């Protein structure tokens, strides 16, 4: 290995190369994802975004942020405590995301409507709670958009009793092109460092939102988009937009 095998410069170079490949290769899938998003907004639906672990970073990029769509909801394992009455101690269980029934409970607490779109994010796409959420959404007639690593998910066994993985259940799959294990730079003595999936996942989310917004504009509709609360009138304007989805979207301190 060269002296630059692990460096800031190499990570920047290689990650940007992957971002370029994602930009080009995902155009068709992004268009299909944008169709799901635009259809959901037109139908007065809410985009229900769910992920665990560091996939929550991509959920946050979609749900409830400045420049993002208003009809979005962040689903989380923490909802068991915040809205479900569970003791905070339940979150101490490191294997909670592998427990049967967890996703079903989170789904029920969100009380989604049939026209809501589920965006489920997981690099591996095999954890029980991820697959269970996608299954639950499909059983209730929702469309499912997955953001996952096809390289990783194809390299590991299914973790859910159904034998299904997230990619098997989605109407549209956005491949984040992260490597197996997510980390990009191999270390001299084995292993790897510097995860990629957040960078590519954020790119895919914003590409899909941009394309969905373009479709709404082309249809003569104004995309319901948040303005930063840190500009004059932003907070008040956002409250007005949120009234349309009262009781259906959650906005808590993060």
Q: CATH first level: which class?
A: Alpha Beta
Q: How does the overall form come out from the CA principal axes?
A: globular
Strand order of the largest sheet: 2-1-3-4-5
Q: What is the CATH superfamily?
A: Glucose-6-phosphate isomerase like protein, domain 1
**Which regions have little confidence, pLDDT < 50, spanning 5+ residues?**
none
Structural class: alpha/beta
Compute the number of helices.
Answer: 10
Distance between the termini: 42 Å
How many strand units?
Answer: 7
Provide the succession of SSEs. Answer: HHEHEHHEHEHHEEEHH
Structure description:
The chain is α/β, with parallel strands linked by helices. The protein has one domain (27-244): 3-Layer(aba) Sandwich (Rossmann fold), CATH 3.40.50.10490. It contains ten helices and seven strands. It has a five-stranded parallel β-sheet with strand order 2-1-3-4-5, sandwiched between helices. A two-stranded antiparallel sheet has the order 6-7. Helix 3 links the parallel strand 1 and strand 2 (72-75).
Please write out the topology.
Elements: H1 8-25, H2 27-42, E1 47-51, H3 56-62, E2 72-75, H4 79-82, H5 102-110, E3 117-121, H6 128-139, E4 143-148, H7 150-155, H8 166-169, E5 172-175, E6 183-186, E7 192-195, H9 197-218, H10 234-242
Parallel strand pairs: 1-2, 1-3, 3-4, 4-5
Antiparallel strand pairs: 6-7
Helix pairs in contact: 1-9, 2-9, 3-9, 5-6
